[in-house]
Task: structure prediction
Amino acid sequence: MQWVKKARNHIVKQGDLDTYSQARLRVVGEVLHSAPIDIEVDPGAPVEEIARRINLPAIGSRTLHEGTLVVERRWTVDGLPDDELLDAMAHCFGMLSQLLLEAHQQCSASMATCEETANDPCGWGASEMHPSGRLACMWAGREARTSRRNLSSGAPIRATVASVAGPPIDGEDLRNRYGLAIDPLPETADAFEKARLLHEQGRRLLLIDKHHVMLVWLLREGSVLAQRLIEPDDHRESYLAMELIAAEVNRLGADEMIVSSEAWEAEIVAKDDPRVGLRATEREDRRESFLTYVIQRGGRAETWRSAITRAEDDVQLGDIEHLEAGTPPLVRPVIEAWAEWDS
Result:
């Protein structure tokens, strides 16, 4: 905030700021996370062209198979060399927004009843303020200046996350297929109670349908904001899809996330065990589970697990285990998104 005040005075009295054109490079994946590297680039070059021209050093086979090169177009200034200029301005806007909201609260006034101007393109109001104070469009801008490339082929890559929407499902059809009614989630339940209920519902669906797709619910203070469907073909697409979910978390201001999915799991082994570098999908001692986990901004996380046993066309489920466990590596993009709100 001190910087933005000085920058404003400089622009008014002396002229434009000296800006520098950069690209930030990083390699990402579910178990990959390289330190970012910043390089200077042509100010007129689009991010797709920058990504296409980058020559990478020799890379290990697992990184090539699962990793994605992420190139983010950035503008920086002398006063904030480590921050992207648009992100810095959005941060300052968010701080001022929160200051104004707190001022209204101190006066027992509501920003929702204040007079609005005709120039309000984002439809912003106190009732829907993002927890960071930023407008949704300020989070969306980062995706517009980011390009992703498949490390093994060099081709542009993009995962898809579908909205789960459609006409209401007839309750009688549900009873006929699954034997019991699938009740809507109670609005008064918190995210953890909703996750427990979703796991119980998911078990009934899995026993009849023999599979369960990956579903993601985004919430704010227990209220569901959006439901998303992810159908990745490999680990690379799974992580990219979660980066898109993180972008949705930013846009909507979601502070909780529930995920239900089938998954392969394996026991943690000692560092000298030959299996230590293998994924669960690569180990003969792997086990299949149906998992529903909830993570909350601030670090709280809980998981509901049901072991899956398959025999030809039959599916059996073990008893439900309730675990207070850490977050899986797959959801790191969401954790990092929440960390930015307070940075």
Observations:
- The longest strand covers residues 19-29.
- The chain has two domains: 1-158, 162-341.
- The mean pLDDT is 84.
- The longest helix spans residues 85-106.
